[in-house]
Structure formats: structure tokens, C-alpha cells
Design a protein that fits this description.
The structure holds two protein chains of two kinds. By secondary structure, chain A is of the alpha+beta class. Chain A has a domain of 65 residues: 2-Layer Sandwich (Alpha-Beta Plaits), CATH 3.30.70.20. Chain A is built from four helices and six strands. Chain A is globular, with a radius of gyration of 14 Å. By secondary structure, chain B is an alpha/beta fold. Chain B is built from 17 helices and 17 strands. Chain B is globular. Classes of the chains: A alpha+beta, B alpha/beta.
Chain lengths: 106, 439
């Protein structure tokens, strides 16, 4: 793995505001994905920062990854991107049955 | 159900178009069918661009036009390339598409449509279990015998399992039926459903009554030159608006999906079409694009795969067809099960191979195979997405520009620029390559 380098975090768009229109049944206290902090720290490219339609993957001031899972729209892209273009730190799966995003239009 | 000893004839994973089609066909023949859906209701997790082709649906539910939640029939199709301030478009509309069968093309909203379609299966006798996620296939002695759900005492057994789990296909991956995805062979789409007055939609898209319009944008400025496209589909009183690009493009280009969508929505040629609309929902989904050597296996001992998880998507930029193939494959899976049962033959992999043979003989595999090379073609030839829409847009602008040159001089200048920026031979070569990839 390359030495981690400073990553320019993406500028947030208005995804968070848009997600206010999408319905969720949040499985409180049960995140449906996990991040291995050591693997994540060793990841130089952090493609997860650029893939998520909901922009649930951000960097804090220290450059550590901060994730929010409640507003996940379950496309599954981050799982593929992290394993194929990053360091495989993120393990993503569907929420439990009946929880998560709930399309009214689709 | 809970003691694991009661066995169903068939378990179906997923109440999308493939799963519900299979359930409908099997339940009508009197089989005991359980459909497991992870969403709170069928359609809760589902999403597509917006156009449903209904050739298979018409066979399965002949009177669907009376009861299905269809938005508009597609009367007008527009194909657009956007350059730097320029738009090139081709449009086809037909009055012949305004009567039954309406060219078998309708805009629909999947949360409504999938719920309706699952109800058809339920009314035929299938048992629907919503809010039930399947964690893995239960395999005994190399044979799929049931599924493990997330519920307490959640093992369910059946003679056959039909997996219609959608693009992410965790079950297929875990059971070794598909390989890992490659980010450049996977589309990530984001979409907004935008509410707009019915009359305003009809004025802006030049349609009336039940007519609908589809607008497809190829590469170019619509998606900031990325490998992908954008779309607008008219619903009854809303628009489905989105962008879709190869998943690898977002990290490679350092563009967030929503940033690409906002870029598209803000373009001068797009903004007026959406003006005054209110976003009802924001959503995202992936589309599988398997290459010839990565196609998943679609049958095994006691198990069949249908729909997106079987890689059955028509990747042609002119059709964007998935749901119809999902229904066709669900139907073919169900018919394979019925055929083997009737003949008293076991559900071994060798016998289940009849499913793939069925699909190969039909338009389903023929269409999938014909267009399977398009993603690789696009990645090898990025000029179709990041150069030609811009160059041809500006050449057209030169051609239509009015100034003090003679028309002869204008034509000469356009041809000179074309030779310099594209080149005649290169254009013929690329055109031939594109023609071969698209046919």
C-alpha cells in the first residue's frame, strides 16, 4: 500500500438536503456497514469519498473517515469501489428486512 | 413455516419484476410459492430510469392496461448530445404508438408498479413475505435446499429456489455464481422524481393526453464528459430525471454522483424543462454490465437466477431494457420448474440447464449478447463521450452561424475544421467501430 497522502475532500453538494425528500425506516443502533479503521487509514485513494450518492463518507479535520449510515439509499456502490479501487476497509450489506430506504416513487 | 420441516415447492428471493413474474406463473399452476422481499413492501427498494417495456407483461397479465399503475405511453423519443453550449438532437414521435399496444413502452414508477405486480402473484396464490431479508442460500450436499432469512427460526426449505435478488446479488456472490464486480463494468445511476403540473409537462415536452416523452442524453456535457448519460422521462405529473455513469468514473474524475446530477439539471438546455418542479424523492441504484467472460452462472443444483442478478440487461444506449428481460427470465425460470416437475425429473444442475437453453433460444440472451460489448467499447473509445459531442456541437454551430461569409466559404470552413479536429479516416474508423459495437 502506498503511504497515505493528504486527500482533498470533495465539496459537499446538496445531497443531504435532497435526502430529506426520501423516506427511511432507520434501524436505530444497527449500522448495516462497518469500516476497518486500520485498513481505511492505510488507504491512499479513498474512492469512497467520491462514490456515494448520499455522500455518507466524509473526512474529519484529522483526515479520518466519518460515515453516516442512516441516510443510506442502498445502491451498494461503495462496497464495490472500496474493495476494487480502495483498500477493502468497508464491509457493506443490506439493512435488516423491513428497514432502510423506502421508495414512495422509485 | 417456523419448524423448518414444512417445505414449499418454490421459494423466490425478491419481489421485483423477475421474482413476481416467476411467482405468478408458478402459483397459477397450483404450486406452493413463497416470495421473500427485504423491503417493507414490493417496490420499496426498487428503482429504474423510467421506461417499462411490456411485451412479457402482456403475456403474463393480458388486461394489465386496465389495472397497472402506468404513467404515460412513450409517444416521443428524443436522443441528445450536449456540447459546450450546443445541443444536437434526434427525435422520433409516432401517432402509431398512440393506440394499443402503445408500442409496449410506458413510463412507470417502480414503487407503485412493483407493488401492483406482486399483488397479481399474490392473487394467483403466491405467499408474499415482505420485510424478510435472505442472508444466505442453504446448501446441503452441494444442493440448494432453501434459504436462511433474518427472522427468528428463519430457515425455509423448498424443492427449488429462484433467486431474483437484483443487481447487488450478494447471494449469487456468496454461493460462487458470480465473480466480483469490476467498477468500470457497473453503472451507478442517481435519480430525482420531480413533481410538475401535468399540463406544464405536456406543453414542455410537446405531448398531450396519455402521451409521454423520453429524452436520453449521450455522454458530452450532460455528464461532464464522463462515460455515461442522462435521462428525463415524463410521468403523469412528475419527471424522472437522472444521470448514470460507470461507477469507476466518479472516483477517477473526482465527481460526486449528486454533483453530476446537479450539473445536468443546471444546464441551460435542461433547466427550463425542470423549472418550477419540486423534488419528491432522491434515489440511487446500480446496473450490472457483465462482459462475456464475467457473465454469472444462472443455474445450479436446486437453484435458478433471474433478472439483474443473472446479468440480463440490454446495454444498448437506445433501449436501456432490464425489467422486461427480468420478467422474461422469471417466466422462463418458472416454466423450467414446471416442465421438470411434470416430467418427474429432479432439479439437478444438468436438468436445470434447460433454463439457460430456453433463454438462449429466445430474444432475451440474443439481445443481452448482442450489446454486451458496449461498456468495454465505451471505455476503449472515450472520444465518443468526451470529444465528439463537443466537436460536433461546435461544428453544427459553425454551420448554422450567420455572418458575412458566403455559404460556400462556411461549408469549406466547417469541412476544414472537421478534418483538423476529427479527421475523415478517424471518423470513418470510429463510425464503423461504433456500428459494429451497436449491432
Amino acid at each position: 500500500m502506498n503511504q497515505p497522502t493528504a486527500i482533498q475532500p470533495p465539496t459537499p453538494t446538496n445531497a443531504e438536503e435532497k435526502l430529506g425528500h426520501t423516506q427511511f425506516n432507520v434501524d436505530a443502533g444497527n449500522p448495516h456497514f462497518t469500516v476497518d479503521p486500520a485498513k481505511c487509514k492505510a488507504c491512499a485513494s479513498k474512492p469512497c469519498l467520491w462514490i456515494c450518492p448520499a455522500e455518507n463518507f466524509r473526512l474529519d479535520e484529522k483526515g479520518d473517515l466519518v460515515v453516516s449510515w442512516e441516510g443510506c439509499i442502498e445502491c451498494g456502490a461503495v462496497d464495490v469501489i472500496c474493495h476494487q479501487m480502495g483498500n477493502g476497509a468497508i464491509t457493506w450489506h443490506y439493512p435488516r428486512g423491513g428497514f432502510g430506504v423506502r421508495h414512495a416513487a422509485g | 413455516m417456523s419448524n423448518g420441516e414444512d417445505k414449499l415447492d418454490v421459494i423466490i428471493v425478491g419481489a421485483g419484476p423477475a421474482g413476481s413474474a416467476a411467482a405468478l406463473v408458478l402459483a397459477r399452476e397450483g404450486l406452493s410459492v413463497g416470495v421473500l422481499e427485504r423491503g417493507e413492501y414490493p417496490g420499496a427498494k426498487n428503482l429504474f430510469g423510467g421506461v417499462l417495456y411490456t411485451t412479457v407483461l402482456e403475456q403474463l397479465v393480458p388486461g394489465f392496461r386496465e389495472s397497472a399503475p402506468l404513467e404515460r405511453h412513450i409517444h416521443r423519443r428524443r436522443y441528445v448530445m450536449l456540447g459546450d453550449g450546443d445541443q444536437l438532437a434526434f427525435e422520433f414521435a409516432s401517432g402509431h404508438f398512440d393506440q394499443a399496444p402503445f408500442n409496449h413502452s410506458y413510463s412507470v414508477l417502480r414503487a407503485k408498479f412493483d407493488a401492483w405486480f406482486a399483488t397479481q402473484a399474490e392473487e394467483a396464490g403466491a405467499m408474499l413475505l415482505p420485510a424478510t431479508a435472505v442472508e444466505e442460500l442453504i446448501v446441503r450436499d452441494g444442493r440448494v435446499v432453501g434459504v436462511r432469512t433474518g427472522r427468528d427460526d428463519g430457515d425455509l426449505l423448498a424443492d427449488v429456489v429462484i433467486v431474483a435478488e437484483g443487481c447487488n446479488s450478494f447471494l449469487a456472490r456468496k454461493a460462487g455464481f458470480r465473480r466480483d464486480f469490476q467498477p468500470h463494468r457497473l453503472q451507478l445511476a442517481v435519480k430525482e422524481v420531480i413533481a410538475l403540473d401535468r399540463g406544464v409537462i405536456e406543453q414542455r415536452f410537446n405531448i398531450e393526453g396519455g402521451q409521454g416523452c423520453s429524452v436520453e442524453y449521450f455522454g458530452g456535457e450532460a455528464v461532464a464528459g464522463m462515460f455515461g448519460g442522462a435521462f428525463i422521462y415524463t410521468n403523469g405529473d412528475s419527471l424522472s430525471v437522472g444521470v448514470s455513469c460507470a461507477a469507476s468514473e466518479f472516483p477517477d474524475r473526482r465527481m460526486l454522483p449528486n454533483a453530476v446530477l446537479e450539473h445536468f439539471k443546471g444546464l441551460p438546455f435542461v433547466r427550463p424543462l425542470l423549472a418550477g418542479g419540486q423534488t419528491l424523492e432522491y434515489s440511487g441504484h446500480m446496473i450490472p454490465e457483465f462482459g462475456p467472460e464475467t457473465m454469472p452462472r444462472i443455474y445450479g443444483e436446486g437453484v435458478l437466477f433471474a433478472g439483474d442478478c443473472a446479468g440480463l440487461v440490454n446495454l444498448s444506449p437506445f433501449y436501456h431494457e432490464g425489467t422486461n428481460l427480468a420478467m422474461a427470465s422469471g417466466q422462463a425460470a418458472a416454466e423450467t420448474v414446471l416442465e421438470l416437475r411434470k416430467a418427474g425429473r429432479p432439479f439437478t444442475a444438468a436438468n436445470m440447464a434447460r433454463y439457460e437453453q430456453r433463454l438462449r433460444k429466445s430474444w432475451v440472451c440474443q439481445d443481452v449478447e448482442r450489446y454486451r460489448g458496449i461498456p468495454d467499447f465505451g471505455h476503449r473509445n472515450p472520444q465518443f463521450f468526451n470529444k465528439y459531442p463537443y466537436v460536433f456541437g461546435s461544428l453544427a454551430r459553425d454551420f448554422f452561424s450567420v455572418d458575412h461569409r458566403s455559404k460556400k466559404q462556411v461549408e469549406k470552413d466547417v469541412i476544414r475544421r472537421f478534418r483538423k479536429e476529427v479527421g475523415l479516416w478517424r471518423f470513418i474508423r470510429d463510425g464503423w467501430k461504433a456500428f459494429k459495437a451497436l449491432r
